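thought: fold this chain, then report.
action: predict
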Amino acid sequence: MEKFRKEISPKLIEKFSYKNVMQVPKLEKIVLNMGVGEAAQDSKLLDEAFKELETIAGQKPTVRLAKTSISNFKLREGMKIGAKVTLRKDTMYEFLDRLVNVALPRVRDFRGISDKSFDGRGNYTLGIKEHIIFPEINVDKVTKVKGMDITFVTTAKTDQEAYELLSAFGVPFRKKEIN
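observation:
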């Protein structure tokens, strides 16, 4: 938070020429979502996902329920199929720091994350294929490698503002190639 006030905020004010400090986009929350589709057949997988998501985030996740029934997947409405955690304030900044400096560099063949996953309203979603990139997870105790979605919700009005904000926080986007 201190880094945001002293370094990032003045840089963004200069770049986008905001008239007021309150116009500067902020990171509002980070949402971690782990969908476990196989939980319809095996509820132990969901319990394991819960524990692992709690270990990664540092707070207890909430249950995600199926909204509709899908017979091909043997899924009924109201079944537990995932877990979600919303991080705000200090825990959000601590998680972002761990993600950028520890977890993402552990991804195999990592060359930066895509800058194409912005939603048009200044939010960014990052998909991770292996949750074992986080050092809190003991690889020996993991029965199945799971993926997860990480969504950065910002107060930015445009994707360009959100891109600059996340870049200033150290999120390693791929360098844009000029042909």
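thought: worth noting. The helical segments are 2-16, 43-57, 89-103, 159-168.
final: tokens above.
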